[in-house]
Amino acid sequence: MPTRPDVLLITLDQFRGDSLSALGHPCARTPHLDALAADGVLFRNHFATCAPCSPARASLLTGLYQMNHRVCRNGSPLDARHATVATAARAAGYDPLLFGYTDQSVDPRGLSPDDPRLRTYEGIAPGFAVHTDMAEPSPVWRDWLAGRGVDLGTGVHDVFRPRGSGRRPPARTASRRRSTPTPPRRRS
Fold this sequence. Notes:
- This protein has two domains: 47-135, no CATH class; 136-180, no CATH class.
- The protein is 21% helix and 5% strand.
- It has helices at residues 31-39, 53-62, 66-69, 85-91, 139-147; strands at residues 97-100, 129-133.
- A two-stranded parallel ribbon has the order 1-2.
- 10% of the residues are buried.
């Protein structure tokens, strides 16, 4: 029986496509992503079809434009009629594992009003088996931060607040999770 290739699809939110040292970024240091890019396929000219993240993921996972999948904002349900890359892979005999999250709300049609999946927009796109759930508040990420001495605060979202403040972060204020200074911007 012929061997099928393993496939690893990595997507990142709020990450500029040129912020890889493999692409010559002057400040970004991304050795692990660079190693993957050297040994795989790097899409150098890839653009999201829409924003914010959940609609963009819906387009990536379904292959459809936003006007067709109709996920128009974070929290909009993904119509169950649309196949995803994971459902297609599963139909081909693969076992798509998810490390992270997809923020795809479940299609509410046909569900009981008390179905727990209707209480969050951080659902998992159809077809994936969840290996490591990183939806907020991610205990995996929080444990990783705590293991490195980051003060997480007492509330679930305190890690995003500025150090020494209980208020919302003003622009340009370092969050608790920043442990090293940001490299200076290069001026042209």
